[in-house]
Fold:
Amino acid sequence: MTTSHDPAFSPDIAWCPGCGNFAIREAVRQALEELHLEPWQVVFVSGIGQAAKLPQYMPCNLFDVLHGRALVTATGVKLANSRLTVIAEGGDADMYAEGANHLMHAMRKNVNITCLVHNNQVFGLTKGQFSPTSESGFRTGTSPQGSAEPAFNPLAFGVALEAGLVARGFAGDIPRLKELIIAAIRHEGFSLLDILQPCVTFNKVNTFKWYQSRVYNLSDTPGYDPHDKAQAFARSLEWGTRIPCGIIYRNDRPALDRQLPQLHDQPLVDQPVPADKFRALIERFR
Structure:
């Protein structure tokens, strides 16, 4: 069996040289290794082609679904088999545009899954249109006069909806990103990890250098309490000359599967389905 850190697993990766996705893939690999998770224990769910197809470059269980629909499928997987570590992975367009309605309800329900978002502030896969997180005025080939819309703030969104864990990482800092991925997976409840991932081809504004001069780590900030919603909301709005990374917000309300009595004893996948009850249910809909 290959593992998430097996050097024999070396697929050809169709990413641009210098892409931030290489760093994210390495951070994910290190996190799964440190958590001692085998491929059969992990399920990645990704919108087709999204998150730069990163799960397809990992030795793991993978479910490719329609663009923007990763979270609903990941929810189903987790509720069916709570023993699995379920990670929904997508880009800023996938999760914050087509998938924004599902993101809202996954946060509200506090589904016990991890959501990793590759946020490069552009539609990278489809050649550079502006995305929900693009800054107002961001120019692309399809918006030569610049985006007329304000940027979507996923962290403020997560804090407002009291998601279980809301965090931001940076692809330019693999060690800290790895630790945030571990924290997100370990958290009992919905975890949103927004990852700043420069696109070296289609975003010439938000580059590695641009971020490196601005990001700072909340873990180095004395007195910061991610359980304090007011503090967390204030930090989530901070953007520009200083950009906070780390765990922005955390709460400990019960995850969805802990609140469903039919899941208390064993996962759905292990529960028998009595044939007579199943036939009676089918008959009701004839």
In short: The radius of gyration is 19 Å. Residues 1-5 have pLDDT under 50 and may be disordered.
